[in-house]
Specification:
Elements: E1 6-13, H1 20-30, E2 34-45, E3 50-55, H2 58-71, E4 76-79, H3 85-98, E5 103-106, H4 125-139, E6 144-145, H5 149-155, H6 161-169, E7 173-176, E8 188-191, E9 197-200, H7 213-226, H8 231-246
Parallel strand pairs: 1-2, 1-4, 4-5, 5-6, 6-7
Antiparallel strand pairs: 2-3, 7-8, 8-9
Helix pairs in contact: 1-7, 2-3, 3-4, 7-8
GO molecular function, one term: phosphomethylpyrimidine kinase activity
InterPro entries: HMP/HMP-P_kinase_dom, PM/HMP-P_kinase-1, Ribokinase-like
Protein name: hydroxymethylpyrimidine kinase
Length: about 260
């Protein structure tokens, strides 16, 4: 029997299980990894409505991370919603102290599909500058960033999308999801830190919108990385798996293969 790699997701809990850590674990398990999870937030939501978010205290998050690393060999981590970039930096530092060679895929969830704002600038320019500085620190510590078009527009308010892409790709690998494009919807792009660019066009025609699709994609990519695939192939396979989930039914909650 082939031993499955342990993959840790650090993310929020979604009671509908379409997004967050439960969706991550379902994806990881479907692709033959073993999913471990650390909860960063308890959310009150379903597939169409986001009511509120109760953030988990950092010490609790750290204790969850500690006890998992004490027991399991973890080389791959996916991170979803976190209260802010400052807390995210602290979480990443804890993980890197456990394993400084670990690969981290960050899915920067800034706003829910129902417009709940996780990271608010509050119109304060100094606060915005602090946030961007904290985000810069994050970029130097992660292996891959997976924003969608709405999210990448908000990461650097003083830059165009093209400038933001170039800036991020100068620091780490960037997988830009195309589900929110105004044109060529579904066309994803990978920008690598060695200045290469790859385009992933959609293949399936019967795709419908799904709650948590970004969680599924980032979890699929980290799982394929853990299975030994290089970045380009992991991204390609991750997109194809996500398309299978998107085409699994016509509801907002996708089905995963067993």
């Amino acid at each position: 029997m082939i031993k499955r790699p342990y993959i840790l997701t650090i993310a929020g809990f979604d009671p509908s299980n379409g997004a967050g850590l439960t969706a991550d674990v379902k994806t990881i398990e479907a692709l033959k990894g073993y999913g471990l999870s650390v909860c960063t937030a308890n959310t009150i939501q379903n597939d169409v409505e986001f009511a509120s978010c109760e953030w988990i205290d950092f010490d609790v998050i750290k204790n969850q991370i500690d006890i998992l690393f004490d027991r399991f060999a973890i080389d791959f981590v996916k991170i979803g919603i976190v209260q802010n970039w400052e807390v995210l930096n602290q979480i990443i530092d804890v993980v890197l102290e456990k394993n400084n060679a670990i690969k981290i895929v960050l899915d920067p969830v800034l706003k829910s599909s129902s417009d709940f704002d996780f990271h608010s600038y509050n119109g304060d320019l100094n606060n915005q500058n602090t946030i961007e500085k904290q985000f810069e620190e994050v970029l130097h510590k992660i292996y891959l960033l997976t924003p969608n078009y709405n999210e990448i527009e908000r990461l650097y308010t003083g830059k165009t999308i093209e400038e933001t892409i170039a800036h991020i790709a100068n620091k780490t690998n960037l997988f830009l999801k195309g589900g929110h494009r105004k044109e060529t919807i579904g066309k994803d792009e990978l920008f690598t830190s060695d200045e290469k660019q790859f385009v992933f066009n959609p293949k399936r025609q019967n795709i419908s919108e799904k709650h948590g699709s970004g969680c599924v994609l980032s979890s699929a990519i980290i799982t394929y990385l853990a299975l030994g695939f290089p970045l380009l192939k992991a991204c390609y396979r991750g997109k194809r798996y996500t398309e299978k989930v998107l085409s699994s039914n016509n509801s907002l909650l996708g089905y995963h293969r067993i």
